[in-house]
Write the structure tokens for this entry.
Amino acid sequence: MTAPDPDETPVAFSGSRLGWQDLPRHVRARIAQQAGAEVIAETGATSGFSPGFASVLELGDGREVFVKAVSAEQNPHSPDLARREVAVAAALPDDVPAPRLLWSHDDGTWVLLGFQAVHGRSPVLPWRADDLVRVLSALDRLAGTAPREPHALRPVTETLADVMSGWASLAAEPEAYRRGVADAGGELGAWTLAHLDELVDAEARWAQAAAGDALVHGDLRADNVILDSTTCWLVDWPHAALGAPWLDVALMLPSVAMQGGGEPNAIFRSQRVSEGVGDDRLRPVLAGLAGYFAHGALQPAPTGIPNLRRFQGAQAVQTLRWLRSLG
């Protein structure tokens, strides 16, 4: 992996969003039908990696709705993620600061989601201390939350089982490939190669460390947060699962460090959810996360998301630095 330029943080945006007029006519008609009024204006979302359509729509009766519309043409995984978000919405308790799902429609090709429109801003980047405090406070409250029963949420040990094995995948590559990857990563790459067996061993224990019954968002970064005058909204929930109550903070902090928010271990240890979480439990999760990011960064760009791999590479660097600081 190549260490990113510290003065050039990757942007969390797919760059391939559809506008209202890009949607097929029958999709636009279905959205208007589901919304209950004609669409007279749109304000497109300018952050997040998901390709497809994502906009706040102004309706003819004065209401607003945030709509996602995706098909496999934009990305083969997008429809299933949208379907997953429908299932997750039913499991979110009322006190979770997530926009409410108002309606959904699935014709087998296009999946349409209509959410409560919330207005605010993303955290200022580089991270400001006051924004970070608000987000961490929201995660502190989320850590004590259980999903609404009955629900279809799976344990995080199942939802992430296929991706938390990046170091094992790298170790299985030919030695020349491993050395090429390490050389591209400079000093950190050399450290990674020298400790590859330890990383493989650590990531193999991530599931035991991450297990729990708390509601976990599973994909929190600045682009999945909206701040208004009173509420820190947590958006985009398709990866929600059940896990340890400290997981969301730990999984988010590499992106915070990448975006100028401070030293992740110091932030983690300042949070109530870290109490009783020893380094021996944190280390396997960070190893699995670093391997996921590093292995992902080496893959071809997914359809419709050209800059995802660079973003993953930058997070791999920060996660490895945090992991290495634990000794």
Summary: The chain has two domains: 17-115, 129-325. The CA atoms of residues 22 and 201 lie 48 Å apart. The longest strand covers residues 52-59. Residues 1-7 have pLDDT under 50 and may be disordered.
